[in-house]
Structure formats: structure tokens, C-alpha cells
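Weekly modeling sync, notes
Attendees: AB, CL, MP (scribe)

Item 1: holo prediction request
CL wants a bound-state model with 2'-monophosphoadenosine-5'-diphosphate before deciding which constructs to order. AB pointed out that an apo prediction alone won't tell us much about the pocket. Agreed to run with the ligand included and paste results into these notes for async review.

Input as submitted:
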Amino acid sequence: MSNSGSFEINAGTRLCAVLGSPIRHSASPATHNAAFTKLGLNWRYLAFEVDPKNLRAAIDGAKAMNFAGLNLTVPHKLLALKMVDELDTSAKKWGAVNTIKFVQSRKSRVQNSEMRAIGFNTDADAIATSLREDLKMNLRGAKILLLGAGGAGRTAALKLASEKIAELFLVNRTRAKAGEIAHEIKKQFPSVKVFLDFPKAKVDLILNATSLGLKPDDRSPLNEKQFSLKQTRAVYEMIYRPAETKLLKAAKKSGCQTANGLGMLLHQGAKAFEIWTGRRAPLDVMRRQLVQSLKSNA
Ligand code: ATR
């Protein structure tokens, strides 16, 4: 062990990594490495800038080098569906892979046992966990306005529907994308009422899953002439950097309960950690590190 409490890197060090583009500001390495140290594991977590055209080579390379696992972030989560050897039910259900675990398959006839890449999705559950924890949301029977129908919006919409919310108002710049998701929900979760317009009455939650708010000049994703913040109890912003977007600022001013995407980021990471290590994730350590990394990297 080093003075800092983590193991020196040696020939026995297990490796995990996040692959994405851009990846420079990822808070995941600091968060996972703090968790490995806390549990006394001789593991390390790295970040690699990987262009989509090299994703398959990167996954195969990590597998060949006996990595323990990978996280995948923008723009790789859909591409990876076709690049793993097996999909866990979570990845099948939510249609995206954000976590890969490399496991040794049973001895093949050739003496070397082979590694297999199994794809998981830990994003969807993290959304529901964070809504419950950070906003005390009771999802069953809830009425929710969801802004955005990209990758994140789709996962959120399907997860919320699976939690048996009552009504989902799905609004997106490109209406056809919201329409496709609505169609899927009607097939899989027929009891959920889906609308492609702003609500006419109060809702329990507005959830922003668009990327509007990531850049300082971005306008709020909600036009209050179309739907007023006075008409919701709570607002969840999937963006966590900046910690307070224009939408969250306005929501606080309006007296709504608010939360940003930090809890979602924390819980998807914690679940990945548990999938790789088989150990319970030290949530407090991970949360503290995450907050610190986001602050120092703002
Ligand atoms: P992610 O994986 O983070 O969801 P994405 O799939 O690119 O990223 O989705 C981005 C979301 O933000 C989409 O809902 C997108 O709307 P479109 O489907 O119409 O592209 C939304 N978005 C991005 N920029 C926007 C803008 N300037 N105005 C309105 N919506 C925007």
C-alpha cells in the first residue's frame, strides 16, 4: 500500500476504463478510484478518448488484455449493443450498453479459456433511484413532462413507463423521435397514457433530458409560455455540469423542488462498480469524490 492508502500499481492491478468522445472532463476515474481505494482493491480506472470508428477495436483490446470492465459514454452506448458477446437483460430491456464486464467463459476445448464481453445498462435504474432519493418522487401513478427524445430521453421514458407512471407528456424538437418512443411505450406498457404535447393540467415532475443547458449560452429547454413552472411540483435536470442550469434556476425561483443529474451519475457508476467487483459500492465516498471532481473541473 502507498501512503495515500491505494495499492501501488503492479502486475496484479486490475483495470477498468471509460471510453467516450469527448472524455477529457469525465469525473468517473476519480470516483471509481476513490471507491477502489476505500475497499482496499488493487484496481485502477482510466479514461480513454475513443472515436466511434475505433470502438470495436478498443473493446476487443480491453478484452484481450484482461480488463475487468468498461464504461461507455457518449457517443458509444448504442453502437456497443452489437459489439459485445452477450447482452444482460438490462441492456436488452433499455436498448443501450453503458457497462461491459469481461468474464472468463468456461474452459473451451482449446485449453485457453476465452474472455467474453457482457453488456449491461445501469443508466435506467439510476434515473429512478435518483428521482426517489433526491426528489422523494413516488413514480407509480405520477404525471411527468419529459423534455427530450434522444438517447437519454428514450431511456428515461421507458424506465418511467416501466415504473407504472400514469401519464407521460413527451416533448421533443424533432416530434417524430418522441412519436417513436410513444409507440414503443404503447406496445410495452399499455397502461401508461402517452401524449406528444405539453400538459393541460398540473404535473408532478418536469424532467429535462435534452442537452440544452450544457453550454452557458443555451436557452432553457422549457418555454414557459407553453408550460409554466408553477404547474409542477418538482424539476429534475439530467445535466450535472453546470450544477445549476437556467431551467433549475428558474425552477427554484418558482418554488419547485429541484435536483440535477449528479445522483443519476452516482448510481449508474455505483452499479457498474458492483457488477465488476461483486462488492457493495461505497456510495458516500463516491458521492463526495464526484462532487469534488465536478467542482474542481467546472
Ligand atoms: P443524449 O444521448 O444525451 O440524449 P442525443 O441523443 O443527441 O443526446 O439527444 C439530445 C436531445 O436534446 C434531443 O432530444 C435533442 O432534440 P432532437 O431530437 O430534436 O435533436 C435535444 N436538443 C439538442 N439541442 C437542442 C436544441 N437546440 N433545441 C431543442 N432541443 C435540442
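Recorded for review: Residues 74, 148-153, 172-174, 177, 210-212 surround 2'-monophosphoadenosine-5'-diphosphate (CB under 6 Å).
Action items: CL to compare against the apo run; MP to circulate these notes.
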